[in-house]
Amino acid sequence: MLKNTSPSCRGRHWPSLLAAALWLAGTCAQATTTYRCELPTGVRYQHQACEGGRAVHVSDQRTKAQQENTTQATQTTAKLGKQLERERRRQEKASRGQQPIAMDDPNRQPKWPSPPTPGQTLKREHPFTAKVPKDKGSSAKSS
To answer: Residue 21: which domain range?
Structure first.
């Protein structure tokens, strides 16, 4: 697999990793026992046994092919996560000796234009005023 370590590609994989982690959490939750608890306020399903509750047996509705695809996707995501971690550690190790960019260095401050000299006059702009020309035909009286 080719690695693109350019700065523009950093951090692009975190949405897919997050989605995979959430999906994995959902599949792990299916492996636990679910209990149906009937309360005066209604029925509640939870992962902890309750008084008067009974275990609900839920089977996986996916086909074998879907389960294999899921396992393969989980393994691929885990490999990608490890690869990204190695890349991050390499970048952190390479940047240990570097100093942060500092803008407080007086030599690096932006140079502002100098103020006008005392004998110099500034040119002031005159505002534009639109004037409508008079129509020659409107001066004659029409009945």
So the answer is: 12-93
Phi, psi dihedral angles at 65 (to 5 degrees): -65, -40
Tokens coding 53: 């509750």
Per-residue pLDDT of the chain (143 residues; tens, 9 = 90+): 445 555 545 556 666 766 677 666 655 555 678 899 988 888 998 888 888 888 988 788 899 999 999 999 999 999 999 999 999 999 999 988 887 766 666 666 666 666 666 766 666 677 778 888 888 765 555 54
Residue 44 lies in a domain: yes
Residue 129 falls inside a structural domain: no
- What total of structural domains would you count in the chain? 1
Cite the beta strand spans of 1-139 per DSSP E. 34-39, 42-46, 54-56
Check if the beta carbon of residue 84 is closer than 8 Å to that of residue 13. yes
